[in-house]
Design a protein that fits this description.
Helices cover 40% and strands 13% of the residues. The chain is built from twelve helices and eight strands. α9 runs parallel beside α11.
């Protein structure tokens, strides 16, 4: 079995491990000690490969550390093709490339397979030391009240074979609140956590797909607590479903649109959030980098990261 390269343990990782012992959810990974600040929310940044379209992993992996992240989130087609690149190069070469770039595999995003076909992908993630897999829900949409609760319960029952493999593989499954989906309304996220029988399934929280209300989002974060495994620093802006001038498309990024992330980050601080934070947006059409070159993409991510870090300084 292949194993993740050992980068040692930093102060931040040690502190987060202590939090895990108290019931928090810790994402393992290499963390730069210089980023640790006692008494402050220290975000575990992860870099989404789809931000770079179909660029080669050889070009993307050097950007992980440059973007302030410790790990990469591999996306498959159509959003990216880096998951397919992993298959082409093989697991051993992929792990070598991670080590060469002082990074880890933190997440595999797999909407393509759907939530009920993840077993082999979860085993792959386990072999690669990847702690997280994001996927979407499945079931009727636009439900509310007891009917929604019942449908979420049915979904979790159907997920049990996947959850069993996740537990065996040491992987956490994060269900994103995606539009036009069973797991879309805030109540569906709450029921997902209330009804789960395993802590190996939780939430990938995407503000983009929720009302752009800082108070609502903050209260939702507090109610979900340690059940959040992935937080997308992502707002709706002017959307991502039609061609827009680039500056309008980039309004999805933190610090450019109207959404104030200070109370949202304040809520994450209140729950002692230990999961991943992915600065994110969708380009239109999918499969293209959000800007023309890898360096420009990273620069834009860092601009948003600076905004988030400035917010953190005053909460």
């Amino acid at each position: 079995m292949l194993t993740m390269p050992d980068f040692g343990i930093s102060r931040r990782k040690f502190m987060a491990t202590l939090a895990t012992g108290a019931g928090g959810f810790f994402i393992p990974g290499f963390i730069n000690d210089s980023k640790f600040s006692p008494g402050k929310l220290n975000l575990n940044y992860i870099l989404g490969s789809s931000m770079y379209g179909y660029l080669d992993l050889a070009e993307i992996l050097p950007e992980v550390q440059k973007s302030g992240a410790s790990a990469i989130d591999l996306w498959p087609k159509v959003h990216g093709n880096q998951r397919e690149q992993l298959d082409e190069m093989g697991e051993e070469r992929f792990l070598e490339m991670l080590k060469e770039n002082n990074s880890t595999l933190g997440c595999i995003t797999q909407y393509k397979l759907g939530p009920f076909n993840l077993k082999e992908e979860l085993r792959l993630a386990g072999r690669l030391g990847c702690p997280t897999m994001v996927t979407g829900g499945s079931g009727p949409k636009d439900l509310r009240g007891p009917t929604l609760k019942s449908a979420v319960g049915d979904f979790l029952e159907k997920m049990k074979p996947q959850i069993e493999v996740a537990e065996e593989s040491g992987v956490h499954i994060a269900i994103e609140n995606h539009g036009n989906n069973l797991i879309e309304h805030p109540d569906s996220l709450k029921w997902l956590l209330d009804l789960r029988s395993s802590e190996s399934i939780g939430v990938a929280l995407a503000p983009y797909h929720l009302p752009q209300d800082e108070q609502l989002l903050s209260e939702l974060i507090k109610s979900l607590g340690e059940g959040i495994f992935m937080f997308y620093a992502w707002q709706h802006g002017m959307g991502s479903m039609k061609k827009l001038p680039k500056e309008q498309e980039l309004l999805q990024m933190p610090g450019k649109g109207d959404l104030n992330f200070k109370p949202i980050l304040g809520a994450l601080k209140e729950i002692n959030y230990q999961g991943w934070t992915e600065i994110f947006m969708h380009p239109y059409p999918r499969g293209f980098p959000i800007l023309e070159t890898a360096s420009e993409v990273t620069q834009e991510i860092n601009r948003s990261r600076k905004y988030l870090e400035n917010c953190l300084e005053v909460i």
